[in-house]
Structures are given as structure tokens and as C-alpha cells.
Specification:
Blueprint lengths: L3 H14 L4 E8 L2 E9 L7 E2 L4 H14 L18 E2 L9 H5 L22 E3 L7 H4 L4 E2 L12 H15 L3 H10 L13 H6 L4 E4 L2 E4 L3 E3 L2 H4 L2 E2 L1 H12 L11 H8 L11 E2 L4 E5 L2 E10 L2 E8 L4 E7 L5 H14 L4 H4 L15 E4 L8 H7 L3 E6 L2 E5 L9 E5 L7 E8 L2 E9 L3 E5 L3 E7 L8 H31 L2 H9 L1
Length: 505
């Protein structure tokens, strides 16, 4: 069986060799560090930015309030968030704390749709500029874009609001609460939410890797701290990993083990073979073992964390560039631990093609609305096309990692609806898993997805219908047909159609 330590070291060194400027990696077993290493431009004592892994600390803060019976998992967020409005989508119920923790609360990517066109991060400010408090940043409130529970949509703003809720309930500033009730009890003395002078002195430089080499990324600060502001070190993150991987046993008093175990459970679960979502923790099952995890990123940094509580194992990695090398280190280490082959092997299944598999061919798109589906639009172009040939299925998208097509093969001899493939995203090979049903598919591509089949005439690749119209109607008629198609698509993307149908219900 491969050694997780040797696997991590090999993957990390390969990332440095292909141009990642710096990388820190560490792992724990039975609550004790077994491997810590720094590569390239970063050293072991450097402070790094863990980005959205901060959400785990926000979720833990929420769980502490549940334990003290000051709030409940299924309470509406609006019952406890007093600093600004947390508005439901029109005609929908209020989102609960549990739904926001699982990214199924019905909130989208943006505060306002005009942020779609911004070329900068809409919740970041340059170093030296004042960071507005969240009650000021959200002075106009947040509004859901769809009904809670309809599907998964990663929602920074909604999740950050749970941190403000913690502040409103306890009367303590969010950063101070996390410092006093989580970081210090876990011994994470080099970590903080606030950007202190000590953090500044030890912060690693982040880079953007270009074909001409790495370029320094200017320092920025995140406005919505509970969604991604944590600064930490590899050793501090291993203290956190030790606590999570032992289900709280390495440090008593932060959370009851039963509460932490409840957070690990699948609270959003399309299929046991697919990625799911716990309370704050991403949840997967690899080689029969439950894996809880979270990734994070901010300009110049990408971090990845995972724990296998059943094996009392945890691993953390962070790069000083926007590259998924940390995710590759973490995934390959977990696979080595549980004895599962890497994706390049697992994706070559050699199973016979099931009868009738060509029925899966078609166009698939997200259905939650423009804001909730923004990541699919920005990274992939808004839809996926599945085509069928004699070798199996081919998944493609207008842009992004599947633009050239990703081969899908049968993934389960007993289930003709489950397919797998080998994907690559930001330098990292990742397993693609898809389960088709009569309406579309759920899957990890590699993000958690729920896509629904749609008519080819509604495809975002409108130039194909336009070309057909040109042959019949001539240029003027084709232009008119294309404009009508675009208007129809804009209405669909804006969510107006969904809202009308919701009101009818």
C-alpha cells in the first residue's frame, strides 16, 4: 500500500518542478504530526491564507451556540441575525441555519447582479484601505435568489452572514469570538482572523504564475471575514487537523464529539458515490471511509484540508499561487491512506457500455438562476454537453477544464446511470463522477453539481441555431431569430421564469 507521506512529498515536489512557487504540506496521525515540509519560496513558519477553510471555523462557532441552546440548527437565520436584512426569495420560506451551512439556502454568488461585470473581487479591498464592517457592507441586506432546498449553490455572502449572526447573538466581535473560543483553545497561537502586525511580518508572498514566471500578487483583504479571512501556519492547521481527525478528542472543550460527528454527516446527499455536504464540512466517501474536507483560495494562495476520522488522519496543504496542487496533495494522500488508486487509474474502468447509454446525450444546464449558478457561467460557460459514441460518453463545456472534452466511462457495473472520468483543473487531476436520472445529472465535475437536461435550441451556444436559421430565413431573419433566442435566455438566466412558476405553486 502506498505511504501517504511519500505520496504527499512526491506530489508536492512535482508541483514545484512545474512552476508552483511555494508549498507547505503537513499531516497528522492519531493527533500527532507525522510530516511537515515546506517547498520553494515559502518556509514552515510562514503565515499563509487559508481562504474559505475559514468557513469551518464559522461553522464551529455556530455549533457552539447550538450546544449552548442559544440557537437551533433549523432556526431561520433571520431570527438571530439582527445587523441587516437576510431576505427570502420572493414567495419562498426563510432559509435555515442548516441550509446555509450546506449551501442550499437559496442564496447566490452576488450581493447585486451588477457585480457580475466587475473585474475585481467584489468583497476585497486593497491593503491600506479601510475594511467596512459587515453591517455596513450589507446595509441594503441580502436577498435569496431561489427557494431554499432546491439545490446546492456555494454562497459566500450567506455563509459570512452566519459569522455576523454569531456576533449578534454573543455580543462579541466575530474575530475575537473565534480567537477566544476556537483558535486559542486549539493552540493555534499563530493564527488570526484580524490582519495584525505579527501576521503582516510573517505573511508569505502570493504569486500569479504566468508563462514568463511567477508575478507577485498585491496584498488585498477580504471584507466578509467569516467567509475567508483566516491567516494561519502549517503547524497551526495541523493542530486543527488533529482535533477534527480525532473527532474532538485531541482537545476537549471546543465542541462535544457528538456535535462534531453530527457536522460530519451528509446533510445534503445526492448519492453516496458523489460529493455531499455536511454542516460546513464538505463530505465525501473514499474507499469506504468518510472524508470531511474544505478548500480555500484568495489571490496568491490556494489551501486544502481533509480528515479521515475513521483512520484518525488529517492532511493540510497550501500553495503560494492559484494552483490546485494543494488539492492534489490532499486527495492523493487520502487515497494512499485508504488504498484507493489515483484518478488516472480509477477512471479507466473497462466495464462494458450499458444498453441504451446513448440516451444520456444532450445539453445540460444549471437551473437555480443567474446569481446561484454564477460559477458555472464564469468557469464553464453555463452548460455542459454530453455526446455519445462507440467508446462511451464525452462531457464538454463552452470553456474551462472540459472545453476539449472529457471522456466518461461506466463507473458501476450494477448501475448504468453512474459514470466516471478523469478531469484536470488548475494543474490538478481530479475524478469526475456523474449520476444520470430522468431529468439530468448530479455529480462532481469536480464541483458539486446538479444539472438538468434542456432543449438544444435553448443551448447557450446560440450560434448553432442561428446558423440553421440563416440557411432558411436569410441574414435578416437569422438576426431576428437570434435576438429572440437571446431575450428568452436572458429571461431564463435572470430567474424570472423560475419565480413565476414558484408563485403559481
Amino acid at each position: 500500500m502506498p505511504d501517504p507521506v511519500l505520496t504527499a512529498a512526491t506530489v508536492a515536489q512535482a508541483a514545484i518542478d512545474r512552476g508552483v512557487p511555494g508549498l507547505v504540506v503537513g499531516m497528522v496521525q492519531d493527533g500527532t504530526s507525522t510530516f511537515v515540509e515546506a517547498y520553494g519560496t515559502v518556509d514552515r513558519d510562514a503565515v499563509v491564507r487559508v481562504g474559505s477553510i475559514t468557513k469551518l471555523f464559522t461553522a464551529i462557532a455556530v455549533a457552539q451556540l447550538v450546544e449552548s441552546e442559544r440557537i437551533g440548527w433549523d432556526d431561520p437565520v433571520v431570527r438571530h441575525l439582527r445587523s441587516y436584512g437576510f431576505k427570502r426569495a420572493r414567495g419562498a420560506p426563510d432559509a435555515t441555519i442548516r441550509q446555509v451551512l450546506t449551501h442550499t439556502g437559496g442564496f447566490g454568488e452576488f450581493r447585486r447582479l451588477r457585480e457580475w461585470r466587475w473585474k475585481t473581487i467584489p468583497f476585497a479591498v486593497d491593503d491600506g484601505s479601510p475594511i467596512p464592517p459587515m453591517r455596513e457592507f450589507y446595509a441594503d441586506g441580502l436577498r435569496g435568489s431561489t427557494a431554499p432546498g432546491r439545490g446546492y449553490a456555494y454562497a459566500n455572502h450567506a455563509f459570512a452572514s452566519l459569522g455576523q449572526m454569531v456576533e449578534d447573538v454573543t455580543g462579541e466581535p466575530y474575530a475575537e469570538y473565534v480567537r477566544s473560543h476556537i483558535l486559542r483553545p486549539l493552540g493555534m497561537t499563530s493564527s488570526d482572523i484580524d490582519f495584525t502586525d505579527e501576521i503582516r511580518a510573517r505573511l508569505a508572498q502570493g504569486y500569479h504564475v504566468t508563462k514568463d514566471g511567477p508575478v507577485e500578487v498585491p496584498l488585498q483583504h477580504i471584507t466578509i471575514a467569516p467567509a475567508g479571512a483566516l491567516y494561519s501556519t502549517v503547524d497551526d492547521m495541523l493542530r486543527f487537523a488533529a482535533w477534527v481527525s480525532t473527532t474532538g478528542a485531541s482537545c476537549a472543550g471546543v465542541l462535544a464529539p457528538s456535535t462534531l460527528a453530527h457536522m460530519f454527516e451528509r446533510h445534503f446527499e445526492p448519492d453516496l458515490r458523489l460529493p455531499g455536504q455536511g454542516l460546513g464540512f464538505a463530505r465525501d466517501d473514499v474507499g469506504g471511509e468518510a472524508v470531511v474536507a474544505h478548500d480555500g483560495g484568495f489571490p496568491g494562495f490556494v489551501a486544502s484540508f481533509a480528515a479521515v476520522p475513521g483512520r484518525r488522519f488529517g492532511v493540510f496543504a497550501c500553495s503560494t499561487a492559484i494552483d490546485l496542487a494543494p488539492r492534489a496533495v490532499v486527495d492523493r494522500s487520502v487515497e494512499a491512506l485508504v488504498g484507493v488508486a489515483e484518478p488516472s487509474v480509477r477512471a479507466k474502468t473497462n466495464l462494458p457500455l450499458p444498453a441504451g447509454y446513448r440516451r444520456f446525450a444532450g445539453v445540460y444546464a444549471p437551473t437555480l438562476g443567474l446569481s446561484a449558478d454564477a460559477r458555472w457561467w464564469m468557469e464553464y460557460g453555463g452548460e455542459f454537453r454530453v455526446s455519445a459514441d462507440d467508446e462511451g460518453l464525452l462531457l464538454s463545456s463552452p470553456r474551462g477544464p472540459h472545453a476539449e472534452g472529457t471522456r466518461l466511462l461506466p463507473g458501476d457495473a450494477a448501475d448504468p446511470n453512474f459514470w466516471v472520468g478523469l478531469g484536470k483543473r488548475l494543474g490538478s487531476e481530479q475524478m469526475i463522477r456523474i449520476r444520470f436520472d430522468g431529468r439530468g445529472f448530479d455529480g462532481g465535475i469536480p464541483q458539486t453539481a446538479r444539472m438538468r437536461k434542456r432543449s438544444a435550441m435553448r443551448s447557450v451556444r446560440f450560434y448553432k441555431p442561428a446558423a440553421k436559421a440563416a440557411a432558411v430565413l436569410g441574414p435578416a431573419g437569422a438576426l431576428s431569430a437570434t435576438a429572440a433566442l437571446l431575450r428568452r435566455r436572458v429571461r431564463a438566466r435572470s430567474g424570472r421564469t423560475a419565480r413565476r412558476s414558484l408563485r403559481r405553486r
